[in-house]
Amino acid sequence: MELGVLFTFKRVYENLKNLIVICISLIGMLPLDAINATEADSCIRMAINPKNADSLRFRAFTKYYIHYHQQFPDSALKYAQIQLQLAQTRRIDKEIFKAYIQQGNILSLQKRLADALSVYKKAELIALKSDNPIMKADVFHNIGTVWVHQKDYAQAMNYYYRALDLYEASNDRGCIKMALSSMASVFLLIRNFDMAISQYEYILKLQKNTELKN
Predict the structure, then answer these.
(1) Which are the contacts of 69, defined by CB distance < 8 A and separation ≥ 6?
(2) Which of 47, 117, 176, 191 is most solvent-facing, going by the fewest CB within 10 Å?
(3) pTM score, whole prediction
(4) Are 104 and 120 in contact (CB under 8 A)?
């Protein structure tokens, strides 16, 4: 009987300990969430205020996307649409492109892949109109990621290679490393470890060369 009581007490103790850990975790999260929500609200008030200069509003929209689109994807998608409408009204292709890319990224994050692909195609039209190789490459890279989500790795690599060619032609080392890293991830997914290692080694080489130049 005493042994049974001892085992019961031990189970209660373990359950209580786990409950305490969960409660501490939740309590620790609350202030951060509250702070983030307050900062996000402040950012959006600046973005949607028509009295503010357009440049300030666009920066605020972009800041909201960068910092909060993963935490508040539905809100980020709504405000990206408002950003797009403002950019279209002002006829600023660069901001229209940026809004489309942000929308596509959020839709991709939400696994709404067909919608994401459709939005990226709209961004591609802006990139072609602007004849900007980096913008074109950004579209290709993002479309490649959609194909990764759809597990069509051949298509994904096709778009990643197209993006890489444009990044290399523009000598944008940061974007080159990003494309190579995405390609390495695909090689890992298809278990081509030698190619994945090769990509990562090239990234490290680029990083070392950059550090030496700086």
Answers:
(1) 76, 102, 105, 106, 109
(2) 191
(3) 0.78
(4) yes
